[in-house]
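new request in #modeling-help
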Amino acid sequence: MYRAGLPEAQGLYDPTRERDSCGIGFVANIRNVKSHAIVRQGLQVLANLNHRGAEGADPLTGDGAGILIQVPDRFFREECKSLGITLPEVGHYAVGMVFLPQGEAQRRACEQAIERCAAAEDQKVLGWRDLPVDNSVLSDEVREIEPFVRQIFIGRGDNCPDVDTFERKLFVIRKQSHITVREKSLAGPEAFYIPTLSSRTICYKGMMLATHVDGYFTDLKDPRIESAIALVHQRFSTNTFPSWERAQPFRFLCHNGEINTVRGNINWMFARRASMSSKRMGKDLDKLWPLIGDGASDSATFDNALELLISGGYSMAHAMMMMIPEAWNDNPLMDAKQRAFYEYHAALMEPWDGPAAVAFTDGRQIGATLDRNGLRPARYIVTDDGLVVLGSEVGVLDIPESKIVKKWRLQPGKMFLIDLEEGRIIDDDEIKSELAAAHPYQDWLDKTQIRLVDLPADVEPMAPDPKTLLDRQQAFGYSQEDLKFFLLPMAVGSDDPVGSMGRDIPHAVLSDRPKMLYDYFKQAFAQVTNPPIDSIREESVMSLVSLIGPRPNLLDMESGGSHMRLEVKQPILTSEELEKIRHIESREDNPFRSVTLDICYPAKNGAAGMKDAVDALCARARDKVKEGYNIIILSDRGLDADNVAIPALLATGAVHHYLIREGLRTHSGLVVETGEARVVHDMCLLAGYGAEAINPYLAFDSIEHLEDALPKDCSVEDAHYHYIKALNKGLMKVMAKMGISTYQSYCGAQIFDAIGLSSAFVDAYFTKTATAIEGVGLLEIAEETLRRHKAAFGDDPTLRDDLDVGGEVQYRIRGEEHMWNPDTVGKLQHAVRGNSRDVYRQFSATMDDNSRKLKNLRGLFEFKWADEPVPLDEVESAAEIVKRFASGAMSFGSISYEAHSTLAVAMNRIGGRSNTGEGGEEAERFKTLPNGDSKRSAIKQVASGRFGVTAEYLRNADEIQIKMAQGAKPGEGGQLPGHKVDAVIARVRHSTPGVGLISPPPHHDIYSIEDLKQLIHDLKNVNPTARISVKLVSIVGVGTIAAGVAKAYADHVLISGGDGGTGASPITSVMHAGAPWEIGLAETHQTLVLNKLRGRIRVQSDGGIRTGRDVVMAALLGADEMGIATGSLIALGCIMMRKCHLNTCPVGVATQDPVLRARFKGQPEHVINYFFFVAEEVREIMAKLGFRTINEMIGRTDRLDTVEAIKHWKAKGLDLSRILYKPEMGPDVAVYHRESQDHKLDQALDNQLIAQARSAIDTGKPVKIETAVKNTNRTIGAMLSGEVAGKYGHAGLRDDTIYIKANGTAGQSFGAFLAKGITLELEGDANDYVGKGLSGGRLIVYPSKDVKYKPEDNIAVGNVVLYGAISGEAYFRGVAGERFAVRNSGAVAVAEGVGDHGCEYMTGGVVVVLGATGRNFAAGMSGGIAYVLDESNDFELRCNKAMVALEPVSEDPRATNRPPTEVNGLSEVFTNMNGDDALRLRILIERHMHFTNSSRAREIIAKWDEYLPKFVKVMPIDYRNALAKMQTTAEREAKSEIPMTAQRD
Amino acid sequence: MGKITGFLEYEPEDRDYDPVEERIQHYREFVLPLPEDELKKQGARCMDCGIPFCHNGCPVNNIIPDWNDLVYRGDFKKAIEVLHSTNNFPEFTGRICPAPCQEACTLNIDDQPVTIKTIECAIIDKAWDEGWVEPVMPRHRSGKTVAVVGSGPAGMACAQQLARAGHTVTLFEKNHKIGGLLRYGIPDFKMEKSHVDRRVAQMTAEGVKMRTNCHVGVDITVDQLTQEFDAVVFAGGAEQPRDLPVPGRELDGVHFAMDFLTQQNRRVSGERLKVNKEIWATGKNVVVIGGGDTGSDCVGTSIRHKAKGVLQIEIMPKPPEAVDKGTTWPDWPMKLRTSSSHQEGATRDWAITTKRFLGEDGKLTGIETVRVEWQRDEKGTMKLVEVPGTEAVIKAELVLLAMGFVHPVHDGMVKDSGVELDPRGNVKANTEAYATSKAKIFTAGDMRRGQSLVVWAIREGRQCARAVDEFLMGYTLLPR
């Protein structure tokens, strides 16, 4: 039975959370020569991208694949003839591919529906064709949901003068058919879907493996199937539920990426409906709604919107530029006209923001484009006979090198287009220049654009007297902490404030205190399926520009210069700016009319009155918009003792959604003037629910009253400016953590999950926001608001002269409750130090009681005890149970050496696992101590900074953990300030003492799920015995990601709670990002079980596990293992100072200060005692539950009950049944870890290499190996390096001991973690991640001798080359992709050109670029040196100079007068890093020439004097200072020795 | 906030005393306040902990980090506001509190704690000096009446809070003046009585009616109170002293400590003694039995009386001078504490018990003692065992019994009211409602919890006031 793929939502599993990612590609004949060969080649591309896809529990169940081609006229004409159908001439008929129900009656009903829809549009149905298919290639599971596939032929009606009109009619027919079938339920319980209906293109796709597309659709094997293009797609979905319609390509495109803002985009599309009209489409436009089907994937949604734009008359390229604009804001390199084009279109449509590689075609043109940050790979080649092959990888088709005339890649934001009718390639600049010149966009902008800053000044209202201010602050819920931890630091320091340790206070819905509505929302963040962005280092792609006011008709292509727009640089308005908007009408010739709507209502109406007040507000907003007001200001300035304000967030969400529903939202702008919003999180929510600009007036007033606390040189105006700056930075960070780069896309995108709000409430005011556990509704929110209001204007003596204490960040009396408090900390420490189980019992009783006092979700659960408990001595022993415990990832650097190594010793003694955290580990610790102890951490973390991640480090792991996110700051990077980087830490991290280190927000080799799969594969290669773990943070939807992780062959997944700790993180993130582990763990377990993947992967949970009860809860909810991090630190003496980020930890745990480290008193026994106490407690509970082993207990949510007595006034609305949902899958489906992953290491080329290099590994005797490679040979050299590092450590072998010469195109991660002593020479080219983690080896890549193109103008290696390289050398003859040498710590590299973000975050090593670079070179570069040949003299514009200085390279006779033939070793390169530049440069270029035979290098050497002045040296400022400091110290030491020698004399 | 590295930069400094030879010549306070700049440094040592353990170490939950920071920044005015928000009488606790907060201070783990008590005292002293302490008048009157019986720290705190909530409060005191143990028990050299007087003045202005010389149960019945008032609070303290019923107890020269101390306090303030016979230590060998704070006060008073010699003995073994902070902090540790009175010239002895009082002509001449050991019996309970052969006789003309108080005096008010008692003989009530078994009657302070610290009495008074307010009004805004 054909059903719409995904199962119903059940438990916490929600099909709308599905994520997918993919391999894409196309093959095209530029001259539009149609052939069957192109189709065959397309299918071949698919097969060669197979490793980018995934398979499910059943290896035959792929995630879907497909091919889109031009309608093969000859084939259909002949086929139809035999069916008795006569096809008219080309362009006069269309073919529809239709997925129909298997049931005959339903099928017929659906067919008739299409026929009727066609007739209604006056088009002629010519007939149907049954498709021959062979379903033996499908898995059983997929066969069960196989559609009945038929093709319909429709003739062009007389009402269509041209093909475009015909296509538009076909669009209407398709839409109308879908609508009719759905509305009348014609398909019965089965599904109905039309993949394509067009006169130009046809798509064959479905739920088969990439290699089986033509196996299923046997048509495709017919040589009469001819096309000049073949667009192919191979899907990797995060789950295994098969879905035919989610397979790609869609009608116009295939998409490898994620649209992070899709919820907002859908809302805005919907909101535009009323303001949309099109001369071209006329009444047809109305027949297309609903344009976007709910539950469609984001790619399908994108396709729908694109189709609308194309039907509306935009060209494909034009539409793509609107939907995925380049980063135009503040781009000095962009042509002015193109800038104007983008700026003009920004008002028409917000970007569909997210990583994307899109290949698109309408049958006449075929092209591809990349998102503004280049977060997906796309490489292409052009041959001398007019063939273009584009794909996620190079090497997907075997094309002789001699035929290739161009090898290149799509660059960030760039487009590549082939016009088949014109028979030529149109490059990015030509497409865009042409479009930009089509209309006078700049003139239009000049006429219509009003910048708020340019409006005449207005008078801002005076701040109120202190008493009134206090009352208002109280009514809006301000606490002392808001001033102390947020407003004051922001007003002084311009940054969102940083704190440490985790969140241990109740969720808003469980708190006794009235909480702000903001507290019920958690920020969502990117993990795995798309990357977060570094909003600081990659600010070039970020934009906070906001357009206030009505939006133009999206399909209006005629009256371009007439629509006025009001623009702000960023969305936080000062009170003066708000007055400008309020009085905007008084400006002459001004199209704007603003109206202020008071969102307060009489307090005497009480909580029950809020509903009416909200309804009335919405109605007023509607009326005002209809009256022609086009800027609505929602204001709570009217608050006073008698009038209470509707929470501004509620008012905003309510009005925004109401206007969307009324179709009026794009008629008016929405500005919020509120005393309520004050911190970054508040602004984010207002923005996320539709505010185009925000004036937090009370925060400004409050800062004015803090004047006395401001530094003397900081005026109130400065303070306001700083505060806005801090909010801006924070906003960008929150946007960036979801991978969103523009405010326009973020606005209304609803990137939040609700924790503790009822569905009814959310549906009404925050429509489509996820809420996992239900909770309070409007009445309770109103009650909380009223309580605050009453307290503010009442007689409470503690509030007479002061704000409420808050107590959320720090424990305070009369403040919020904390799990860790004086009592619990003291008791735990007494228990572990005195080895007293009795005291531990007191501790755990208090903790568990705190849980039960509604402080966390598990507190709401109770055990269902067994009728017959088992005797305690039959329960698994504590010694076994503790092996399931881990101590949490904490880096040496964030905690002291003492704390770090004590934890390791403790965990090793009990067989549990400690975790290095991000920051490496000293090799000395890998050796066992004489007393049998070991300081080696069993888990080696691999985080985004890759600090100290060498082959040796990985080799010394039992588990390698890829940290995708951290509970306290998911989606964010980290920073270790220079003053914390002492000599030891610098050594371990392979960096320079005194120079700060940055961990980027994303892993630059994980922008998607298939990338993660690749990294897992890389790590497994280096250390095949270590299990590979992926650390995720709990959030609604994490279960789906975990399923993807399981399919990416991770052995282990950690679901970390959002409450987890940190050494330093913005307090906003600690408090507001990530969900409790209970939700994420339960969702993960349920989704894995439903997908039959649970047995393949171990599941761990952490982030607030403290007692035996917690451990049992975790097991029952689905965890195999548990992590206790904060608890173990407290056992070692941590007292929750929350000062980790300040280096002043007074107990020596989280500090590097030697004086304070001396105070550390923790002993391994303390941790061991704690873990055994917990384990014994677990046993006692297990006995009472009747379980003998932990395995029996995993996932047994049926043994949990919700506490009957939820009497709490807020908590009573909670519904935890979804957490407790237990999927019933039968005994065959594993519910705990009991199987293992097949990593397919046996297929690795390295097995042969190791065999061939065996003697070299064993004896050090040099060996030379030659091998052919292709793109499916991934991670070449890593397994071999693991062997070398295992035996010889980081020191490795002598240079060139193992010399491998490879020929062909290497797959991803070529030479990853290559150990010293191994040389990989590649004649050919390579894909992404070449030399990642390079650990001393040498890499050489140069094109085949046969090529005819100029190597320096073509691409040699892909993106993210040398990421996290530690040491070694790399020489690339040709250009490298984006992010070359990102986070390089010490390798030297030469390339002949690099893409955007070159040398990003680099901390050491030397990079030479003998050609142009992309934008944002050296962003976040804190160490090492780069030399760039700047022939066009514009490098300065391409370089991010925030941390580096640009200098010329001065002449040096030692460099100039070198004998031409000699090749020097590297020793001179590193001798004097603070000088000898010319010499260093010369040596490296000579080596480059020597190894790659580069003509470019030869030319430069030959004309050294001419070229040298064109080189720019890029020198990090801190690095230079640190080097100088080290030099003076060394000199001083040297000098101090002189007198001693003198004395001896 | 504060100075992040203050604790690493500034040495701990605390208040010093006048020299012994000077201070024992009078009954005035002799503690030397820290200069303001030094005080600020001491405030800067506070680390503004994520969990301020001091905060719970302190029974009234003083918000210590906040006012430490304010003192560091020189904002004493704001500091007293914060301090007053949790503590009605910081000048009392700033002088006589044993400062459990300082034991709980996180700097106490490895270092010297912040001198919290000194800072507290300086804040309130400055506030009085500057005239910042003013009556806090209620905005509205509730029309409800409350009788608070007993004007010690619990009764005072309770009465003040209730008055501020708008109730009409009458504070009953059996003695001539308000203050209870604060006035009659604690020697002036520890705390001068003007501190109490100032508060009485403030409370009077706030509307509290003072009914001194009115002994409830004697001068007025409990029934009269319950009829006249909407609520009654028993805050009569735990005045029943623990006796030492050994042979010779009746001898002249064996006295309860409180009788001795009260007399001296009355003398200092010029109040009539109302006793037949004065108790003087002058020229005598004095033995103080009991090692607590009251005993220490007896030592200081005896020295000022110019006793010939003062010996303080204690039945418990000598506590250690240093403790394992790993298993005690942040709790109150059992350790040897040496008070200013001890420094003034007393000897102390531990693990010693009194077998009998010896006398001639009905007059005390000495005591017979024996050393004891604490041993664990087979059930694991600790038992006191005399050590054979350690009997000794100590010469003494005055013995002061300072072995604590067993429970409130039952005769009179407590018995008359018929309130239920707990197993220890205290008036039974929990710490949520503070309600006795009898309607309208509440209880707080030592009368409820048994003998304790002044700071606990203040806490109970405040919390009880909150409970009474809620009882009277159905809601309360008084802070816990």
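bot summary: Chain B touches chain A through 43 residues (CB under 8 Å).
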